[in-house]
Design goal:
Strand order of the largest sheet: 7-5-6-4-1-2-3-8-9
Helix content: 40-55%
CATH architecture of the largest domain: Alpha-Beta Complex
Radius of gyration: 25 Å
Number of strands: 9
Structural class: alpha/beta
Strand content: 15-25%
Length: 334
């Protein structure tokens, strides 16, 4: 049964990053205390191999964060799916009115949470409020590939990449997401795909609080592909149109090559045959790839996907409460 209504709950995915999340919670407690906001916290432990440190996040209870729950998953599913499972848990077992989704490494700054909550209330608590990134703190190489990814994402999906996980989600939107299969792949893309009312608040990105990121280059590529996979039908349609355009251009070039071969003496022996053959191979390959991808997407849309309300319980092991007014700080499993 849902516990008493909580005005705000903060969801933080975590994998072997207990130090950063602990520091984040301490800063969050200070920020929310100054803002006069009380919130609960749900840390989604994505099957961490590092044990929970003793007296984590700290020995004395937090003031503005009286309840800190850790949702323990059965296996490592990745931070996007960890967010999906955390949202399911809040929908089913709490009556929270607003959910703040943020990363636990500090790059989503605690100081910006009151700003997002203020924008959330200005929108009558009916819109999903996303932090739109104005400035990134990563290396030049990372920023180059990130801009390249943004261009590719826009070209293939028609959607501009401007947001990450950092957001405030109303209860009504949370309820609607429980039947959205795309939530399993990418939280922000699922919100866009579900056409939920949303608004962007420009905010700068912070710096990591401790340790090193667990996300390598391959992980970043998988993360980007997961975001684009949510719009796979648009991607397939655009690829099919691009292949059709390439076919028209190739047919024109074949006609031009044949004209040069038949009506002029400019052609080098064997040149026309080689050129036409190469163009035909390119056309057949592009059309075949586009058609196969389109049919694969059509099959995916016909097959039942991950439904949070139906499938999420299989991935959840237990919940541990670390800080609550009437519970010991050593933790209680349920």
């Amino acid at each position: 049964m849902p516990r008493a209504a909580q005005s705000v709950t903060i969801v933080i995915p975590n994998f072997n990053d207990w130090e950063s999340v602990g520091m984040l919670l301490t800063r969050l407690d200070q920020v929310l205390l100054r803002a006069g906001v009380t919130a609960s916290v749900l840390v989604v432990d994505d099957a961490s191999t590092d044990a929970l440190p003793p007296h984590w996040p700290r020995a004395e209870p937090l003031t503005a964060l009286p309840i800190v729950d850790v949702l323990n998953l059965r296996s490592n599913v990745g931070h996007q799916r960890a967010i999906a499972l955390g949202l399911y848990h809040l929908h089913e077992f709490t009556a929270t009115g607003a959910v703040v989704v943020m990363d636990g490494d500090g790059e989503d700054r605690p100081e910006d949470v009151p700003t997002l909550l203020a924008a959330f209330e200005q929108g009558c608590s009916s819109e999903v409020i996303f932090a739109a990134r104005q400035k990134r703190m990563e290396s030049v190489t990372f920023r180059f590939f990130y801009q390249l990814y943004r261009l590719l994402h826009l070209a293939l999906t028609g959607v501009e990449v401007r947001v990450g996980n950092f957001s405030v989600l109303p209860r009504a939107a949370l309820t609607r997401l429980m039947a959205v299969p795309d939530l399993w792949n990418h939280y922000a893309a699922a919100v866009y795909r579900a056409r939920l009312p949303r608004r962007l608040v420009p905010l700068s990105r912070g710096s990591r609080l401790a340790g090193k990121s667990k996300m390598n280059f391959v992980g970043l590529v998988v993360h980007g592909v997961s975001a684009m996979s949510v719009f796979s039908d648009q991607v397939s349609a655009r690829l099919l149109v691009a292949s059709a355009g390439l076919t028209i251009v190739a047919v024109g070039l074949i006609a031009l090559t044949a004209g040069v071969r038949l009506f002029t003496d400019w052609a080098v022996p064997g040149w026309a045959t080689y050129t036409i053959g190469t163009l035909l191979v390119l056309v057949l390959q592009s059309l075949t790839f586009a058609l196969l991808f389109t049919f694969l997407v059509a099959h995916r849309r016909a097959a039942p996907g991950f439904i949070p309300l139906r499938d999420a319980p299989y991935y959840i092991l237990s919940t541990t409460t670390l800080h609550a007014p009437t519970l010991a700080t050593t933790g209680v499993d349920r």
